[in-house]
Design brief:
The structure is a homodimer of 346-residue chains.
Chain A lengths: L7 E5 L1 H12 L5 E2 L1 E2 L1 H5 L3 H11 L4 E3 L2 H5 L10 E3 L8 H7 L2 E4 L2 H9 L4 E5 L16 H4 L3 E6 L10 H14 L6 E3 L3 H4 L9 E2 L22 E13 L4 E2 L5 E2 L4 E6 L16 E4 L2 E6 L7 E4 L11 E4 L3 H8 L3 H6 L6 E4 L1
Parallel strand pairs in A: 1-19, 2-10, 3-4, 4-5, 5-6, 6-7, 7-8, 8-9
Antiparallel strand pairs in A: 1-11, 11-14, 11-18, 12-13, 14-17, 15-16, 15-18, 16-17
Chain lengths: 346, 346
């Protein structure tokens, strides 16, 4: 297939990724893994896993078995945990792959034992009521004979100062008291900043590895990893009163120089950016105007008379601020980044 | 790579796709092309192009050259138009590929001529002020010697009963009066329903091919093409007062049976579905409860005591209704559908 240069880029900062991992790891003495599910939150799991593994990360968490298979040539299979559990039909493939299942239900535990057992992780539900073995299901016999590496649970409200955090911590300790495991793990990115009580032997951040600010106190220390840029496809001079884009939602309040750049909601730059998005070039900030199209965005270039067709502009993509202005979560801002970007790692 | 069965599916109805194309084509006597940019609005461009080509479609529109290259083995390259224009560096590759550029600016026209010309399409800007040659730029000499197949423009407000539609139609006719081209094209899905004045020789729908309702009068005739289903990973019984999901936003008002299914915002099922999404099984509709997670969604299964772990549920995904309830456009609901689905065509 002929290889064209994509007109939009995701600039990914490998040093910032590693710095974030080290910062999160450095909050305590626990080991620090990495959630790389959903293609490493949209950044590209293979490149993320290579870099974090080189930096010393030894535990990777994905949601699906297919996600484990997609990185299993990069790291020892036993360092990959699959969060979303197992079913009977896929056990032969799981054995072949060698990644470690996270068992979420008594049935999954029985299934795993019946299939011969081996290393596994166990998810306890300490209060999110989503995946995991609940308090009423933990009779000791269930866990007999299991070779448990990580006994884990997941926090629902670690990004808030909520009483639910301490309650989940207490539940996790209580439910897990009689269960033998090599390591325990509770904290996601935000949970790491709740204090070392939440760390146990292993933490497993995701969002903040990739530059997301999971709690306000991280804002100064977590570095952005993702930067977006797009090529200007066309510039034009518009008169006062002319309308721009779908449904003519923007009317020029004065003569304006407008540029159309190669980025749209199909790339994850959703219509929620209309009215609040912006681009910049040589430190000059230029507002996005009108509706976001599927493949295109229009920008007021008036303060940048030098910008011309073929030039590139950076797109403002501060995760925390964009989340406030668009109503999308920082997670969605990452995981919806599409497949048309050229992903450039530095 | 070991091939696991994905726990979430996009069921794609090839007959509905073709029926929609025929319906749109049948609104007049013009030929009917297909917008297949953004991976055919998230459905998968290769499968869409094969099916529409078999049905008789002979004009395919993409945004990027990379998108043209990705389907160029399926149809004659000359039947693919690339909407987002050209730049000097990619002309040798464009020549090799053979797909047809849509020239959007005087500079692009001069570039194409200087590179030897050949078949091209021209985008006129009749009022959306996004891409295309504006009224002030159409001196006759610019078009001399061009071998223009399609002279086109794009409607900004075809989904509304807006005066802008007639104004754009008049502008298109006026600006294009002196430009010689084999065919003219103005109408997208919604534009087709503005009447045959808008059809010229070729229409080029996108959204409604894929089941989107671009104008209310299409609601009865356009067929849904996309259906979502997800595997239930876990079920649990919850007591009154227990909280579900991130930040515990949902509190059980009674004893409930809750299921966690394999679908999340990383798959395009955004958090905007919280509080209004639902699943169904054997005609029973079951509300989505709590926040949508990255890879998971929780569902009130109380009315479906028979549903168990490993079973599949359908996810309600009526594009027009979901657009109203989530605030996302029908286009975004399609183009954000992620890569983890198994795309099953019937």
């Amino acid at each position: 297939m002929i290889d064209f240069e994509p007109p939009l880029r995701l600039h990914l900062d490998g040093n910032a990724l590693i710095a974030n991992w080290r910062l999160l790891k450095g909050q305590g003495v626990a080991d620090c893994g990495a959630a790389v599910k959903a293609d490493a939150y949209g950044l590209g799991a293979r490149e993320v896993v290579k870099r974090l593994h080189n930096a010393g990360c030894r535990d990777f968490f994905v949601a699906h078995w297919g996600e484990a298979a997609a990185i299993a040539d990069l790291v020892p299979a036993g360092s990959i945990s699959v969060l979303n559990g197992i079913n009977a039909a896929e056990i032969p493939l799981i054995r072949r792959l060698g990644a470690i299942p996270v068992l979420n239900t008594p049935d999954q535990i029985r299934l795993w034992k019946a299939a011969g057992g081996g290393a596994c992780n166990i998810m306890l539900d300490s209060g999110i009521n989503r995946l995991g073995i609940g308090p009423a299901q933990t009779e000791a016999a269930l866990f007999d004979g299991l070779e448990i590496d990580i006994l884990m649970s997941h926090l629902a409200s670690a990004d808030e100062d909520s009483g639910q955090n301490a309650a989940q911590l207490a539940n996790f300790v209580e439910i897990g008291r009689e269960i033998r495991a090599k390591r325990r793990s509770l904290a996601n990115s935000a949970g790491i900043f709740l204090g070392t009580d939440y760390h146990f032997e292993l933490t497993r951040p995701g969002l903040s590895l990739y530059g997301g600010i999971a709690r306000p106190e991280m804002a100064e220390s977590i570095q952005p990893v993702v930067r977006l840029s797009a090529r200007i496809l066309q510039t034009r001079q518009l008169e006062t009163g002319e309308r721009v884009g779908y449904n003519g939602t923007f009317t020029c309040p004065r003569q304006m120089r407008v540029g159309t750049a190669s980025l749209g909601y199909a790339d994850g730059y959703l219509r929620a950016f209309a009215g609040n998005g912006s681009a910049y070039h040589h430190g000059r900030k230029m507002p996005v105007i009108g509706r976001i199209s599927m493949d295109l965005v229009t920008i007021d270039l008036s303060i940048s008379p030098d910008l011309k067709e073929g030039d590139w502009v950076d797109i403002v993509y501060d995760l925390a601020k964009a989340s406030c202005s668009t109503g999308l979560s920082q997670y969605e801002l990452l995981t919806n980044l599409g497949t048309r970007f050229e992903r450039q790692w530095t």
